[in-house]
Design goal:
alpha+beta, Heat Shock Protein 90, Ribosomal Protein S5, domain 2, Rossmann fold, 4 domains, nine-stranded mixed β-sheet, five-stranded mixed β-sheet, 20 helices, 26 strands, 37% helix, disordered N terminus, disordered C terminus
Length: 653
C-alpha cells in the first residue's frame, strides 16, 4: 500500500471504522439466490442499459469496500471484445476457506447465495456501500458466465459459474505472493434483451466519481473493444472531494466567486463526514451527496443537515456583522445556495438507505453530525476570511433581491390578468376539451407554422401556442428576468402550473407538451432553450414524462399518386429506390412550408405521427450538459461539441 493511501486513511481516522478479522467465519448467509433471474428488476432496477451498467457498479463497489477498509489501493476495470467485463483489485481477496453454515468455500457462498457476505455480522466490514449484500451473487445470476480468481495465502484460486450455477469447483491454478480478487463476466443476453453493449462514458463517469470520493485510490478504466483504438484512463485524486468540486466547476465553465474551495471534516465515534463547497458566478445550485460511497440522488439526513446549517450560518453571520439590516428579512435557503457547488460525503456503520437503489439516507444521527460540523466550521471560516464571506454574502443578497422582484412580477401579472378578465395568452388557440388527461399543447416556432398548426389541428384536444422572436437563455438569467420575459410568460400562463417556488403540477392544463420546431440549426436552438427552461424551472414536467419533441419530416417523395414522407436522408434514399427514378423530392426547410393537411398528416395526427418523449435517466449528466451548452464559457462548449459531433446526424446548416 502506498504512503499516500496510508496517510489518507489516517487522516480520515479510518482505523476506528475497520476491524481486524476477515476470514471464512465472517461470511453469514441470510437467504438463497432464487428469483433473481425471474425478477432481475427487483435487484438492479431494470434490464435496460441502466441495469446492464449496474452489474459493473456492484462488482466495483465490493472493491471500493476493500479500499474503505484500508486494504485496497488500485482497481482495474476493462471492457473486452464482445463486451466482457473484468474487475481486478489488490485487496485481501474474498475468503476461500470453508463456510461452516453452508459447507462450501466462502467465495462460492458469496457468489451463489443472496445476502451472503462480510457485511452483516460486523466482523468483515464496518463501512460499506453494499450493505444489502446482494451484489456479487446477483451479477453472477444475471451473467451468461462468470469467473472468479482469488489471490490469497500464496495461491491463485479459480472457479467458474454459468447463469449462477457452479460449473467448476474452487481449485488452485497457480502460486502468487500477491493478494486480491479478479472477476470476469459476460452479461446474459437472455436477461438484457435490449442491449449488452457498455457505454464507455457511463462507466467513466461512475469510476471517476468513486476516485474523487476515495482520496488517493487509483482506478483504471480500459476499453479494448477496438484493437486499433484502445482507450485507457486512470483516475486518482489526492485532493478527494475538494478536487471533485474543482472538477465540476472547471468542466462546466463556472467561474468561482472566491478561489478557495472550503473543505470541512469531522469524526464522531464510528461515523465521519466531509464537505467541500465553492461558490460560482452561475445561478443554479449543484449538490452531490454520498453515503459510504453511494450516490444519494434523493438526498437524505446528511443533505438536510448541510442545508439547514448553511442557511443558519449566513443569517447569523449577516446579523452579527451588519450585512443584514434590522429591517431586512432573513435569507432563504434558495438565496444562500445560488451558485453553490457542494459535495457531501459521509461514512457510517449500519447505513440505512431507502430501497435497494439506495437513493436516500435515513440515519437521523447524520443530520446532527453534518449540521453541527457545517455550522461551527463554516462560521469560523467566514470570521477568519471576511473578504471571501462578504463576496459570497453579496451574491446571496442579490439572489434575495431578485427573488423579491420575481414575487412582485408574479403579483403584478396576477392583477393584470384579473383586470383583463382573461388569464390565457392572446396567441393561444385553446382546445375544447378541458380534461388535462385528454389534451396536448403544441409550442410552435413562428407565426407561419403556428397558423398552419391551428388550421390543421384537432381542436377538440390540441391547443397551439406560437412563439416568436429570440427566447431568453435561462441559464444566464436570474428568476426575476425569467418571470418578466415576454417570450416565456405565455408558456407559463398557458400551462397553468406557475413557476419556481410556486410550481404546482396538479394545475397543469395539458398532459402532453409538444415542442414543434424546424428541423434546422435554429430549430435545434429553440428546442434547447425551451428544454433548459423546463429543466431549470419546471423539472417535474420532465420527470413526469409530459415533455415531447415533435418529429417533422425532412422530405416528401412523390411519384404519381403515391407520396411518402422521409425523416432522414437514408429513408429518402430508400423511398427513391423503391419508387424508381423521376421522383419529385420536396425538401422541407421549415414547418411553415407545409400546408395544414401536410402538417397534420406528418407531425400532429396521433395515429400516424412520431414523437420523442424527453427523459432524464441521469439528472447529474443532464445538469452538466445544460450548464456547458447554455453557459457563458466558450471552451467547455467547444470541447463538448467536438467530443459529441460524431453522434450528430442530419445536421442542416
Amino acid at each position: 500500500m502506498s504512503d499516500q493511501i496510508k496517510n489518507a486513511i489516517e487522516e480520515e481516522v479510518m482505523d476506528t471504522l475497520v476491524t481486524e478479522t476477515y476470514d471464512a467465519s465472517a461470511i453469514q448467509v441470510l437467504e438463497g439466490l432464487e428469483a433473481v433471474r425471474k425478477r432481475p428488476g427487483m435487484y438492479i432496477g431494470s434490464t435496460g442499459p441502466k441495469g446492464l451498467h449496474h452489474l459493473v457498479y456492484e462488482i466495483v463497489d465490493n472493491s471500493i469496500d476493500e479500499a474503505l477498509a484500508g486494504y485496497c489501493s488500485h482497481i482495474e476495470v476493462e471492457i473486452l471484445p464482445d463486451n466482457i467485463i473484468t474487475v481486478r483489485d489488490n485487496g485481501r481477496g474474498i475468503p476461500v476457506g470453508i463456510n461452516e453454515q453452508q459447507g462450501l468455500p466462502a467465495v462460492t457462498v458469496v457468489l451463489t447465495v443472496l445476502h451472503a457476505g462480510g457485511k452483516f455480522g460486523g466482523s468483515g466490514y464496518k463501512v460499506s456501500g453494499g450493505l444489502h449484500g446482494v451484489g456479487s451473487s446477483v451479477v453472477n445470476a444475471l451473467s451468461e458466465w462468470f469467473e472468479v480468481e482469488v489471490s490469497q495465502n500464496g495461491h491463485i484460486h479459480h472457479q467458474r459459474f454459468e447463469r449462477g450455477n457452479i460449473v467448476t469447483d474452487l481449485k488452485v491454478i497457480g502460486d502468487t505472493e500477491e493478494t486480491g480478487t479478479f472477476i470476469k463476466f459476460k452479461a446474459d443476453s437472455e436477461i438484457f434483451t435490449e442491449t449488452t453493449v457498455y457505454e464507455y462514458e457511463v462507466l467513466q463517469r461512475r469510476l471517476r466519481e468513486q476516485a474523487f470520493l476515495n482520496a488517493g485510490l487509483s482506478i483504471t478504466l480500459t476499453d479494448k473493444r477496438d484493437p486499433e483504438n484502445i482507450i485507457e484512463e486512470n483516475f486518482c485524486y489526492e485532493g478527494g472531494i475538494k478536487s471533485f468540486v474543482d472538477y465540476i466547476n472547471t468542466s462546466r465553465g463556472l467561474t468561482p466567486v472566491a478561489d478557495d474551495i472550503m473543505h470541512f471534516t469531522t469524526v464522531s465515534g464510528d461515523r465521519s463526514a466531509e464537505v467541500s463547497i465553492s461558490y460560482n458566478d452561475g445561478y443554479n445550485e449543484i449538490i452531490l451527496s454520498f453515503a459510504n460511497g453511494v450516490r444519494t440522488i434523493d438526498g437524505g439526513t446528511h443533505e438536510n443537515g448541510f442545508k439547514t446549517a448553511l442557511t443558519r450560518v449566513f443569517n447569523e453571520y449577516g446579523r452579527k456583522f451588519k450585512l443584514l439590516k434590522d429591517n431586512d428579512k432573513n435569507l432563504s435557503g434558495d438565496d444562500v445556495r445560488e451558485g453553490l457547488t457542494a459535495v457531501i460525503s459521509v461514512k457510517l456503520t449500519e447505513a440505512e438507505f431507502e430501497g435497494q437503489t439506495k437513493g436516500k439516507l435515513g440515519n437521523t444521527e447524520m443530520q446532527t453530525i453534518v449540521s453541527k460540523m457545517m455550522y461551527e466550521k463554516l462560521m469560523t471560516y467566514f470570521e477568519e476570511n471576511p473578504s471571501v464571506a462578504k463576496a459570497i454574502f453579496n451574491k446571496a443578497l442579490d439572489a434575495s433581491r431578485a427573488r423579491e422582484a420575481a414575487r412582485k412580477a408574479r403579483d403584478s401579472a396576477r392583477r393584470k390578468s384579473a383586470l383583463e378578465g382573461n388569464s390565457l395568452p392572446g396567441k393561444l388557440a385553446d382546445c375544447i376539451d378541458k380534461n388535462p388527461e385528454n389534451t396536448e399543447i403544441f409550442i410552435v416556432e413562428g407565426d407561419s407554422a403556428g397558423g398552419s398548426a391551428k388550421e390543421g389541428r384537432d381542436n377538440r384536444i390540441q391547443a397551439i401556442l406560437p412563439l416568436w422572436g429570440k427566447m431568453l437563455n435561462v441559464e444566464k438569467a436570474r428568476i426575476d428576468k425569467v418571470i418578466g420575459n415576454d417570450k416565456l410568460t405565455p408558456v407559463v400562463t398557458a400551462l397553468g402550473t406557475g413557476i419556481g417556488e410556486e410550481f404546482n403540477i396538479e394545475k397543469l392544463r395539458y398532459h402532453k407538451i409538444v415542442i414543434m420546431a424546424d428541423a434546422d440549426v435554429d430549430g435545434q436552438h429553440i428546442r434547447t432553450l425551451l428544454l433548459t427552461f423546463f429543466f431549470r424551472y419546471m423539472r417535474d414536467l420532465i420527470d413526469g414524462g409530459c415533455i415531447y419533441i415533435a418529429q417533422p419530416p425532412l422530405f416528401k417523395v412523390s411519384k404519381g399518386k403515391r407520396h411518402e414522407y422521409a425523416f432522414s436522408d437514408e429513408q429518402r434514399d430508400k423511398f427513391l429506390e423503391e419508387m424508381g427514378q423521376n421522383c419529385d423530392v420536396q425538401r422541407y426547410k421549415g414547418l411553415g412550408e407545409m400546408d395544414p393537411e401536410q402538417l397534420w398528416e406528418t407531425t400532429m395526427d396521433p395515429a400516424t405521427r412520431t414523437m420523442l418523449r424527453v427523459t432524464l435517466e441521469d439528472a447529474m449528466e443532464a445538469d452538466e450538459t445544460f450548464s456547458i451548452l447554455m453557459g457563458d464559457k466558450v471552451e467547455p462548449r467547444r470541447e463538448f461539441i467536438e467530443k459529441n459531433a460524431k453522434y450528430v446526424q442530419n445536421l442542416d446548416i
